[in-house]
Amino acid sequence: MPEYKLGEVEMKFADIIWENEPIASGELVKLSNKELQWKKSTTYTILKRLCERGIFQNVDGIVTSLVTKEQFKSKKSEAFLEENFGGSLPSFVAAFASGRKLSKDEIDSLMKLIEESR
Predict the structure, then answer these.
(1) Once rounded to an integer, what is the mean pLDDT over residues 79-103?
(2) Is the pLDDT assigned to residue 1 strictly greater than 70?
(3) pLDDT tens track for 91-101
(4) Neighbours of 24 (CB within 10 A)
(5) What are 44-59's pLDDT values in tens digits?
(6) Taking the alpha carbons of 105, 87, 1, 56 in that order, is the dihedral positive or negative?
(7) Can you tell me the distance from the alpha carbon of 17 to that of 49, in angstroms, rounded to the nearest whole number?
(8) Domain layout of the chain by residue ranges
(9) Contact (Cβ atoms closer than 8 angstroms) between residue 110 and residue 96
(10) What CATH number belongs to 8-69?
(11) Which residues, in sequence order, are CB contacts of 43 under 8 Å at separation 6+?
């Protein structure tokens, strides 16, 4: 099962892959140098780490994702909810809304989501 925690720089690197996949590893090195000012060794070190976490794969020099960006964000959100609110979506929404007034559009969006989930 993939690990759904990435640091800020790892997330920027992951975004480069998601936006350009499938991508040759040599091209990824060039993009990482341009976007992140990384050397070749840094790119391959971080790529290896993310492959070991089950998020990407590097097969015959072609890098592709094993997890889409949307899947990653969804699982990361689930983990956050579990860690911080015992998995309770109502507790999260209550905490989120307690410090501010929800707009009509936000309330409508939440109501639509609830109705679609019934």
Answers:
(1) 85
(2) no
(3) 888 888 887 88
(4) 14
(5) 999 999 999 999 999 9
(6) positive
(7) 14
(8) 8-69, 88-118
(9) no
(10) 1.10.10.10
(11) 13, 28, 29, 32, 33
